[in-house]
Amino acid sequence: MLYESPNMLAAILPSATQASLTYTVTVTYNGQTSAPSTIHVLSRAFGEFTSGQIGGNPGIGYGPGLIEQLDASGNFVINRFYSPAVAGQTILLYGTGLGAVNGDESQGPTNGSITGLTALDFAVYIGGKIATFAIGQDYIGRFISNGVSYAGVDIIEVQVPQSVQGCYVPVAVVAGGVTSNITTMSIDMVVILL
Hints:
There is one protein chain. The chain is mainly β. It is built from no helices and 18 strands. Helices cover about 0% and strands about 40% of the residues. The strands form 5 sheets. Strands 7, 8, 9, 11, 14 and 15 form a 6-stranded antiparallel β-sheet that branches. Strands 10, 12, 13, 16, 17 and 18 form a 6-stranded mixed β-sheet that branches. The protein is elongated, with a radius of gyration of 18 Å.
């Protein structure tokens, strides 16, 4: 379980759950069990985090994405109008739903690697162009900080494609045949003076 409120529950489905099956879910609280709900489990259904979620409004799934980029000093900064990315720059997309990892995330950190992810069933589109990445070289997996793997939080490391710029450039992830929500990012043009 991640959190609960009077109208909502958030929980992480264990990586050991078999995909392509239908399950019945009930919730028990104070000795009372809810009516059953049916869910269908997919192997992947990525959802991009948005900057609106940072402020505590998890219902927003559109607008500026929660995207970081590597700056000139080697630090990651959040993509904004005043700190746009440029073509070829490494960015990190944050979200959830990339799929299962090896191991039991409820028992502590895993290595973060997503199982069965291939370039054939995975693509990141930025401004309608496919972003550059290399499975096995660029990191695509669970968010890991100070040796701790965060269950349910995924990171995708890609490079911004060439010839894309704007204040609200659309970003979408296709994983396992499922297209994510569409967020936006700022991309600046690099001008070389001769």
